[in-house]
Structure prediction request, 750 residues.
Amino acid sequence: MVGATVCAVTEPADINDVPSDIRERHATLSQEIEEHRQRYYFATPTISDAEFDQLMRELEGIEDQYTSLRTPDSPTQKVGAPVAEPGAGVEASWPPVEHLERMLSLDNAFSADDIAEWAARVEREVGTGARYLCEPKVDGLAVDIVYRDGKLATLATRGDGRTGEDITYNAQFVDAIPDELTGTDEYPVPSVVEIRGEAVFPTKEFEAVNAERADLGLPLFANARNSGAGVLRQRMDRRREKLDAAKAKADAAGNEGRAQASYEKVLEEYERAKRNLNRMILVCHGIGRRDGFDIRFQSEAYEALRAWGLPASDRPRVVPDLEAVQEYIDHYGQHRHDIEFEIDGVVVKVDQVDLQRQLGSTSRAPRWAVAFKYPPEEVTTKLIDIRVNVGRTGRVTPYGVMEPVKVAGSTVENATLHNASEVKRKGVLIGDTVVLRKAGDVIPEILGPVAELRDGSEREFVMPTECPACGTPLAPAKEGDVDIRCPNSRSCPSQLRERLFYLAGRSGFDIEAMGWEAGIALINAGVVADEGDVFGLDADRLKQVPLFTNADGELTVNGRRLLDNLEKAKQQPLWRVLVSLSIRHVGPTAARALAGALRSMDAIVDASEEQLAGTDGVGPTIAASVKEWFAVDWHQEIVRKWREAGVRMVDEVDESMPRTLEGLTVVVTGSLQGFSRDDAKEAILARGGKASGSVSKKTSFVVVGENAGSKHDKAIELKVPVLDEDGFRVLLESGPDEAAKVAQVGEAEE
Prediction:
């Protein structure tokens, strides 16, 4: 790291001053942390990063109170894990290599207060002149790369910060690591330069690796960081030796029989290993030792890295104060999944190198930098049971019941497992410790087991053969389906409950007062036999539902509100009515397409399968599903009941609305002040335009609001005209020619 120095450790005070129970806890924590640290660096962790951080913070808290326990041997004073000795039983161990400069870790911050405390310490040491450089914290494998006279000399892991594993042999398989540096007049190649960076799988490449492993029947990797560490540290030299030996045997056997088959298998494994190595990317973020080159600012190092042909991120920003630091942290907290690789926080550094040198380092981390860690998205917890849920279309979905655990800011007890095949593919057993992931608003998902912690008491999950809600035998809807379903669509209480909840949701009729509890109460009271009865509810029927009545037998405030909500819901546009019917495959996008093209429920019912399939955004699968749904008698009865209750079945065409967007495709991304997402789409559709969810070269305009993400970047890249909210109003009111005059094309504003 630039400007890193090591401070001397003071002599500890008398350890006898520490209570025995505290000493015992300190010793236990230290041993546990060292074991987990070793597992982490050899890509076989049994706890999540968040759980490791929690253990480390507890140890630091003890040492803050009892400073005599803070010795050079404490995990709080160390970096990484030592390189395993040859023959130590670690499959991927390589020969050790010393770093030219120590490769330190970073202290962590978990709140705005932590960042403020760090900045206050900086100010006490160097005054008020510090600028801050912020960059996303890549969740990868830390590497150290040395170039001598511009040529690659060594590639090493971090190890314990002084000595890492020499994995230079594997560099030949990673295109992201250049063999030779280039230079410019401003940044000539130094005689010696030590590069610091992170090697990581991009998210798409990680998914490709796991897809390939699934096809081969191999266990899936839990996350990109650990799998990347394992891939980069594998002994490709030994794989090559094994391949050469197998080839020699096959040649000796005339390239036939078992020897040839064995060679082909080894060759396939070798090629797959090469392919996975080449899927990795490198993100450079610092410079250690350098001869014949110096810099004044950390940010200048990134310019030099790019000039030398090294992959450095373009996301770092230099900001003047803590308010701007927090804005940067908040931005990437919201957009962390828009980045092509996993990040777990933001690194904040003092930009001026002379101030870095004044601040120096502790034995394990620089004082001039800190890592802000986002709430964890992956944790480990105990899988208590696997149960099944019957959804609104009859699909039976296994889900895990776990010991409650906090992840991504919320407490999670249940997580999806999709289907029986997925349970088997992931190798999950009831009783396992499992890795759980929850990214933002995404439904929590069990990624896989921590097999190393099994004790033999675990058991396999067996998919039920009968519906747990109604007892009907379960079966696939058609031959070859992965999912099994309950065929009792009309009467299964679980399916009806799910359908009621769905039709009341924001994509359906948007009935605020009819949530999960209300739907169950309506079914249990017998006032709703199927969703066709919903709009027939009146005050007398609701009085039969205990949830909606008070002690005097009169309707509660929520009961009256439900009736008001139902009356308003009758005027929802046709596409929402279609969504609320729970037709398989018909979500908001397909429903909008059908309603926009055919304009009435009768026209949709009467249309042929070919006509439906020919509608832009529909296709044969959805068309077949629509025809199949309307062929069922009790489905037709639902539509009849809704029609008689006054539910809107026709979208009137506003002839006064000019079709100014006819033939245009408009994408809306981010939050607009004057339009909800649905309002914006309706405005586009009403003027004859197409409201799309993805950006391509065929997109006419992209409208960006607050917190616009990757779609905005894609529009800039493809030179698609970009409009802000005011520009969107121009488009709606005056048409595309006037909007083009206020659009931004090709380059993002500074």
In short: Residues 15-86 form a domain with the Helix Hairpins fold (CATH 1.10.287.610). The chain has 25 helices and 20 strands. The longest strand covers residues 378-390.
